[in-house]
Amino acid sequence: MTTEIIAHRGASKLAPENTMPAFELAYKQGADGIETDVQLTKDGIPVLIHDEQVKRTTNGKGYVKDLTLNQLKELDAGSWFSKKFIGTTIITLEEFLQWIKPKSLYLNIELKNTKIIYKNMETIVYDMLSHYDLLHRTTLSTFNPFSVRRISELCQDLDIALLTSRRNPNLVHDAKAMGANALHVKFRLLRLSLKKACQKENMTLRVYTVNRPMHMRQCFTQKIDGLITDVPNLALQQRSAYQLKHKD
């Protein structure tokens, strides 16, 4: 089994997170998949941005939920990272799906619905993925257990991941009970016992955010299903070196 390399918000150490330059770079580097974050605009359109507010990653202010798509499109989402990316814009989920559809990339969409409960977010995202025929290679993930349940009610065949950074001896059981069939855990929670528990319940296990070579090798050794990283190029190098060393 090969651990998949998933670019966290794109190649986010080398380009502004959740923007087309970061996604395109991750694709060119050879990442197996891309992880991104979805919030809803004032007019109910899913856009790719991690924070509930736009201040950190744009030249604007305010909450995403209080701004229309047209207002968000006027913001610069690249200059905060580097002058090289001046003029980079926030993109919609639909624009991203149109870009990714012809590419053989796995897709992980995190619903940012823990701090703000966006009305019908699960249905809006699900319907768009269905329209572009991308459900079969997409994971919907969230920290919100109620959202996990809502997604599972929409489609039981979909890959649904509970995100967590909290220790819980009954994590696999609890995640499965709420409708998840995958776990995305913070690296510090990774234990062989967790991997075995996931295997026993046929639950996919992915780990975030893994940026150190030593931690990457630990994921490869334990044959974790997916490794979510800001540096997909480094992870790919480490995976190749690991496979070469253990090819026998």
Question: What do these coordinates show?
Answer:
Helix 5 links the parallel strand 5 and strand 6 (159-164). Helix 8 crosses helix 9. This protein has helices at 20-29, 69-73, 93-100, 121-131, 145-154, 171-177, 192-200, 213-221, 232-245, and strands at 4-8, 33-40, 46-48, 106-111, 138-142, 159-164, 182-186, 204-208, 226-229. Strands 1-2-4-5-6-7-8-9 form an eight-stranded parallel beta barrel, surrounded by six helices. It has 248 residues and is of the alpha/beta class. The model has no long low-confidence stretch (mean pLDDT 97). The protein has a single domain (4-50, 93-245), classed as Alpha-Beta Barrel (TIM Barrel). It is globular and about 55 Å long. The longest helix is centred in the last third of the chain and has 14 residues, at 232-245. The two termini are 14 Å apart.
Count of strand segments: 9
**Largest sheet, strands/sense/barrel:** 8 strands, parallel, barrel
Q: Give the name of the CATH superfamily.
A: Phosphatidylinositol (PI) phosphodiesterase
Supply the helix-strand structural class: alpha/beta
Average of pLDDT = 97
| Strand-residue proportion | 15-25%
- Shape estimate: globular
Major sheet: arrangement of strands: 1-2-4-5-6-7-8-9
- Provide the domain count: 1
CATH class value: Alpha Beta
Straight-line distance between termini: 14 Å
Unreliably modeled segments: none
Measured as a percent range, the helix fraction is 25-40%
What's the architecture, going by CATH?
Alpha-Beta Barrel
CATH fold call: TIM Barrel
Helix run count: 9
